[in-house]
Amino acid sequence: MTTQPYPIGTPGQPWTMQEKQQWLAMQSLKRSYFDDVVDIIDSLKDEFNVEQYGELNYAANDYPLFALKTRDWQDDKPVVLVTGGVHGYETSGVHGALRFLQTRAKDYERSFNIVVAPCISPWGYETINRWNPAAVDPNRSFVPDSPAPEAKAIMKYVADLGLEPLVHIDLHETTDTDNSEFRPALAARDGVTHDNWNIPDGFYLACNSESPEPAFQQAILEEVAEVTHIAPADSQQQLIGVPLVIDGVIGLPVRKLGLCIGFTQAAYTSTTEVYPDSDKTDAKECVDAQVAAVTGGLDYLLNR
To answer: Which residue ranges does the record assign to the Peptidase M14 domain (predicted)?
Structure first.
């Protein structure tokens, strides 16, 4: 199935600055990063070290960027990086990262140094967008000289820590709006044609195809399966058009694509994908699944 023409631009012609400004003018604030995210971060200041690692200055809005670190930091412990909200519209990624901090992170601080950046794209969170205001996808921008300040800021912060993460889990969703809005917008922006993909009904993972660590991915899926259902493969034994590494897991060239889990040399990496539009789940279960993904991965490493 092919997407319908997007209401901005001319089919077959990439957007100029004029079309990007037209797209930006259509966006509006729909929820509050400060009420939904920053207030929770503030409530955790007695339990974690809260560090502002940057600020995004977009039109009339300034968005401070925060990371939280476990207090019992020791240089000889492995570092775990958890990121959420790279795509700001993916709600359970943001709130899953926060819920992990609220409920489970301290259970692991004796064994790991944990860093959580719960909302990398706060403008995208507020406007329910995949892109930033310049029509740039942060999760294709984890590259040198990144065009996305969201990606640039977190990459610099992690580099400045001076420690290479052992683990990086990036929390995402795949939603019906991927087909109804975001893929049509992408095709229009780039002046190309995109076919809709079959959105998997359930939770799945995307790993680094160059270093898939299938046992690590399987441990995550087993923990998540206690919370919500795992997405079955389609008739081609694929998910979103990509062959399976194992059931419930696809592999992607993450560095080539500029994906978040590719910007460090972490040995154990995974991108979660929750399907919140399924009639088999709800918002709380999606958040709980994100927490289970992180704990499943950490438990695997502790039990090796």
So the answer is: 29-304
